[in-house]
């Protein structure tokens, strides 16, 4: 899949980071994936400050995958600040979290999340979720920060492989 996309993975659990990266690799996602481990680091990355002050501000991530249960600054606060910012509000944000609490789902959408995915516990189901996410957000969807024209990449696998 597309190589010009840049994904920001905001996840504090090292096992979930590795699982997510492996799932993307197994789906042949060629995008650059940056990993930050807490909400404060995510905001620093997105707003080009702190350790990321040298990051080009004209190259925002194409997609943010955001866990909600984060140290320092929680995921909902990250989402709130991201969507309140004129320069970052159009970045698609997908909550990818273990929380299935209705109040987290409702608050995420109230704050402007583009999609909410509860992490499946089963590894096969997790890979299916990552595959669907990649097919839509990196294949079908046209991001304001991507140079591609949208649509499935020519090498996209069938939707229901047996």
Would you mind describing this structure in some detail?
With 162 residues, the protein is of the alpha/beta class. It has a single domain, classed as 3-Layer(aba) Sandwich (Rossmann fold). The protein is 36% helix and 14% strand. The protein has 5 helices and 5 strands; from the N terminus they run βαβαβαβαβα. Strands 2-1-3-4-5 form a 5-stranded parallel beta sheet. β3, α3 and β4 form a beta-alpha-beta unit. It is globular and about 40 Å long. The protein starts with 5 loop residues before the first strand and ends in a 22-residue tail after the last helix.
Index terms:
5 helices; 162 residues; globular; 36% helix; alpha/beta; disordered C terminus; 5-stranded parallel sheet; Rossmann fold
Number of domains: 1
Task: List unreliable stretches of 5+ residues.
Answer: 149-162
Distance between the termini: 20 Å
H/E element order:
EHEHEHEHEH
Widest sheet, order of strands: 2-1-3-4-5
Strand content: 5-15%
**Overall mean pLDDT score?**
87
Tally of strands: 5
What kind of sheet is the major sheet? 5 strands, parallel
The radius of gyration is 15 Å
What is the subunit arrangement here?
Answer: single chain
Please bin the fraction of helical residues: 25-40%
């Amino acid at each position: 899949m597309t190589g010009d996309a840049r994904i920001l993975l905001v996840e504090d659990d090292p096992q979930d980071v590795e699982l997510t990266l492996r799932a993307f690799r197994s789906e042949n996602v060629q995008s650059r994936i940056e990993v930050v481990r807490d909400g404060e680091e995510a905001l620093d990355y997105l707003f080009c400050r702190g350790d990321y002050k040298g990051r080009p501000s004209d190259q925002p991530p194409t997609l943010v995958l955001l866990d909600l249960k984060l140290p320092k600054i929680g995921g909902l606060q990250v989402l709130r600040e991201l969507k309140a910012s004129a320069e970052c509000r159009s970045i698609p944000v997908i909550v990818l979290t273990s929380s299935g609490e209705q109040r987290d789902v409702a608050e995420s959408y109230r704050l402007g999340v583009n999609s909410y995915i509860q992490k499946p516990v089963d590894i096969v189901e997790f890979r299916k979720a990552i595959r669907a996410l990649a097919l839509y957000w990196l294949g079908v969807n046209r991001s304001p920060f991507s140079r591609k024209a949208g649509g499935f990449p020519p090498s996209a696998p069938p939707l229901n492989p047996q």
